[in-house]
Amino acid sequence: MDFDADAQAIITDHLIDATLRGEPSGLVPLLLLARRRETARPTAPIVVTFESPVSAQIDGGDNIGLIAAHKAVDIALEKAKAMGIAIVGLNNTFTTGNLAYHVERATSLGYVALAAGNGMPAVAPFGAGEALIGTNPVSIGFPTTDDPIIWDVGSSAFTYGDVVNANRDGDTLPDEVALDVEGKPTTDPAAALKGALRTWGGHRGSGLGIIAQLFGILAGTEAQPPFFQGFGFFFLVLHPRLLGSEQAFLEKVAEFRRRANAARPLDPGGSVRLPYQGSLARRKAMREEGIEISDSVHKGLMDILAGNPVTV
Fold first, then answer.
1. Is there a smaller number of Cβ atoms within 10 Å at the N or the C end of the chain?
2. Does some domain include residue 285?
3. Is 305 domain-assigned?
4. What distance separates the 2 farthest-apart alpha carbons in the chain?
């Protein structure tokens, strides 16, 4: 399909933001896969299938999640503006991108936000020898008097997009991040794509991935969404005023960050940073210094612009 001007702007902004924050390797190949998949099947309009003053369930019409999730967040923020809190579930979509992007939209307006997504089986939970859950990211953000604090993490030890990159470029994977179809450890990205990625942190990352899978089901997905189809996106946003003084909350969170940054580091040459500070610093630096992408990713993007078949 061809994206209209508004959709193009949303996708471009999301992609540039991911690149500026140093995270293009996982998102760009997924976008290329999504583009190839979109040309093979028609989409339907994005529609609200259930609604209340504080909630909405949305059918994404099999549209790419970068667009569908953007609309879902729009709806959540509009409801939260009136009610102070909102919950939105989005299903029948795929590739929602970096959840931190959606969460930062909410924190920039003074809201606390939680986002979670699920997808096709690509990750083996702790103790399993086959893929049962998606790479399943979770992102939680808090506003402050200046920059937000946002925690954004997937459940897999290696991103699916990075595996696609490694397979395309002929690279090997690190040890202990993937399994082949027989459930044996592998460093071959082609074998990993047929098998499963592993979770980080053993049962801890596995538990997080399972929770995200359930949030996706709450958003209306199947227990295990099919390949690049039927993914889910759960988004909760609330305003600090529901629990007291908004300004006092913002100031206390900012004070916590100042104290954390001033804390004694474990490594005398290091520093203590809270989640998202590194991303914000990279974004600022790259705006001044420029960005780089791999030759293979550049070729894929040029193929899209030229209308050529996309290879991943």
1. N
2. no
3. no
4. 56
179 burial via Cβ count (<10 Å: 0-12, 13-18, 19+): buried
Overall number of domains in the chain: 1
Give the CATH number of the domain where residue 168 resides. Answer: 3.30.1370.60
Residue 87's nearest CA partner among 76, 100, 71, 102 is 76
Give which of 235, 233, 297 is closest to 65, Cα–Cα.
233
CB 119 within 8 A of CB 136: yes
Under 8 Å between Cβ of 206 and 155? yes
- Which tokens go with 280? 């914000």
How far is the C-alpha of 310 from the C-alpha of 37, rounded, in Å? 9
303, part of any domain = no
Domain that holds residue 157: 5-243
Kindly tell me if the per-residue pLDDT of 312 is higher than 70. Answer: no
Which neighbouring-strand residues pair with 156?
Answer: 199
Contact between 149 and 253 (Cβ < 8 Å): yes
Question: With pLDDT > 90 as the criterion, what percentage of the chain qualifies?
Answer: 67
Which range among 7-16, 61-70, 126-135, 242-251 shows the weakest confidence by mean pLDDT? 7-16
Task: State the DSSP string of 178-228.
Answer: EE-TTS-B---HHHHHHSEEEBTTTHHHHHHHHHHHHHHHHTT--SS--TT
Q: What angle do CA 262, 243, 143 make, to 5 degrees?
A: 40
Coil, helix or strand at residue 41: coil
Give the type of residue at 229: Q
Q: How confident is the model at residue 86 (pLDDT cuts 50, 70, 90)?
A: very high
Residue 129 in domain = yes
In the sheet that holds 196-198, the strands lie side by side as 123-124, 196-198, 178-179
The token pair that represents 275 in the structure block: 């989640």
What predicted TM-score, i.e. pTM, was given to this entire model? 0.89
